Amino acid sequence: MFTISLGSRVRKSPFFEATVKAGVRNFSVYNHMLMPTGYGDPQAEYWRLINAVAIWDVAIERQVEIRGPDADHLAQALVPRDLSNCRIGQGKYAPLCDHAGRLINDPVLLKLEACRYWLSLADSDILLWARAVAAERQFAVEVFEPDVSPLAIQGPKAQAVARDLFGDWINDIRFFGFRQTDLDGIPLLLARSGWSKQGGFELYLQDGSRGEELWNKVWEAGQRYAMGPGTPNAQERVESALLSFRSDTDDDCNPLEVGLERYLDLAAPAEYIGKSALQEIARQGPRRRRVGLLLDTQPMTPCQQPWPVSYNGQPVGTVSSAVWSPRLEHNIALALLNIEAASPGTAVDIQSPERILSAEVTDLPFI
Amino acid sequence: MFTISLGSRVRKSPFFEATVKAGVRNFSVYNHMLMPTGYGDPQAEYWRLINAVAIWDVAIERQVEIRGPDADHLAQALVPRDLSNCRIGQGKYAPLCDHAGRLINDPVLLKLEACRYWLSLADSDILLWARAVAAERQFAVEVFEPDVSPLAIQGPKAQAVARDLFGDWINDIRFFGFRQTDLDGIPLLLARSGWSKQGGFELYLQDGSRGEELWNKVWEAGQRYAMGPGTPNAQERVESALLSFRSDTDDDCNPLEVGLERYLDLAAPAEYIGKSALQEIARQGPRRRRVGLLLDTQPMTPCQQPWPVSYNGQPVGTVSSAVWSPRLEHNIALALLNIEAASPGTAVDIQSPERILSAEVTDLPFI
Lengths: 367, 367
Known about the structure:
- The structure is a homodimer.
- By secondary structure, chain A is of the alpha+beta class.
- Among the domains of chain A are: about 15-60 and about 150-235, Probable tRNA modification gtpase trme, domain 1 (Gyrase A, domain 2, 2-Layer Sandwich), CATH 3.30.1360.120; about 285-365, Elongation Factor Tu (Ef-tu), domain 3 (Beta Barrel).
- Chain A is built from eight helices and 22 strands.
- Chain A has helices at about 15-20, 40-50, 70-80, 125-135, 160-165, 210-220, 235-240, 275-285; strands at about 5, 25-30, 35-40, 55, 65, 90-95, 95, 105, 110-115, 115-120, 140-145, 150-155, 180-185, 185-190, 200-205, 230, 290-295, 305-310, 315-325, 330-340, 345-350, 355-360.
- In chain A, the strands form five sheets. The first copy, chain A, has a six-stranded mixed sheet. Chain A has a six-stranded antiparallel barrel with strand order 17-20-19-18-21-22. Chain A has a five-stranded antiparallel sheet with strand order 6-9-10-5-11, with helices on one face.
- In chain A, a hairpin with an 8-residue loop joins strand 14 and strand 15.
- The radius of gyration of chain A is 21 Å and the shape is globular.
- The first copy, chain A, starts with a strand and ends in a 5-residue tail after the last strand.
- The mean pLDDT of chain A is about 95.
């Protein structure tokens, strides 16, 4: 148990004071900002997400805004998908790659209006990446971080909370779709999205001075649906096999290794960074695969660092996340393994800090 | 007091186990890695740095290696200094800027050999930045993070510890100079550098599996000089006015605002990113200045977030760090202020969370 130091270098979220009042106990740092990671009762937080609705401070999903005459050109250069058919109000999950096809982030791209986009980021400095590409290509764009901080409501009752707050029109929003709106004058973008498979919305607050006000309104509306505090949930996300960029990936990882083929438009005429490298990887087939592992052990605490995996005595990769699954009543893990050990049914050994664990490779997602 | 969550996304240093055994209590996250920030006795840690020698895990100073036929071209493109006279074995402090002259990191550039460099980084993903520039310009270079983790010894007795460990030749290393060597077979680069003004060395470990072994050897050699554990020290660095990138800077900050003019070669023929923007800023004069503030208050805990500063009732900037100075026996702070409030002797008000503090602008460094 170590204490996290607070200081000016690591920013606080606009919802920070609200999370403190709600009893936040644990933090990590993500995109140079404090990220709440627990309120002291992991089981209650898990079942709240599965059965009711949780409110999450995810302001750490920072935005990069791209705006100006060449915004379409820059967005298309950065995103390995065909954006020619991207509509205003549509979000697209986008595994950003560098010129060698390495995964460098997996944001959602939001098309806000003609020549205006947000990239809603995982944990890397895509602001620098996008500015470098824009400047080197002399694109006429502004690239900056706007005053935008998402607040998520996740779980089966999130729909009801959103309807009570905003009205029946929210039923028309499709997955990753969004609309600009406000809540009693608090400007926000409402998107059907979030880092769980339990359904829900993200409220992209557009005035950092009104974080506590927004949190309180959402909290109040959620009380009749048993809303309580939560955070991106390790157990649920492993069960659902959502990618955690930087946990499940290393510097050399490409999107085909981690199961993101369907988010790449490799055959489209659109030109983007990394396209030829990704086409070559697709031709040869990836050398590694992200897989599930079923572990034969008692309930355990989540792993705190990568665990080496071996197959027939040879190292074949690492476990990135291992958790007890309350719904499967089984220990499960995510691993990136060499292709020869990645077929379902393969028996592998895991070197945990205490001892060797036996495990079996399985398909994803678990649930 | 909040607990920091441990997991695969935030890497551990090769010295992590050694710091735990030495009693580390507090962490932050820096370059996606756990950074020790305290061992539970701030005053002992401060005076150890001032009077004796401290051992610091600064593996979070990650390296970007640039290697290959165009390495000189890429290094010169990234660094706003004339590298034509840079010698092998020489380090140069380098305020990296983007095309608009904004400060994006302040590493030390180390020239390892012909066509081979390291950038020893502050907290931003310069790996992405350097790869973008290299690829967009089609430079023939490799850009990657090598297995390198610095361990620092800082304080007036660091010289004696280094001499006992390595021999008298270390007297010949000039500030920011370095030499490749080893310690009983542990490969490392020894540099006269470190993030304090108390003097010392950084041992750039080049085999991550041997962190605890290196720590123990250095620790043992340090015992006759009263060595103990420490971390980059907030009080000493404010007294010395060392720049903390991202604490003392914001996204729009340029190196002239924070006193780094002398590390820019604006008139040299060398071409680098941001040169014309920096020349224009120099012509017009910066609009803000990093200054010191003397505060009239009792001893206080370091500030945990930026504090607004006003002058004649108008907002003029923010305090980034405020600490009690044990040597000055005075509260001191660093602030970035609009030029009209940045002259020594100016009286300003600081909005701390509890109350308004009166302060006077002063020159840097404090000591």
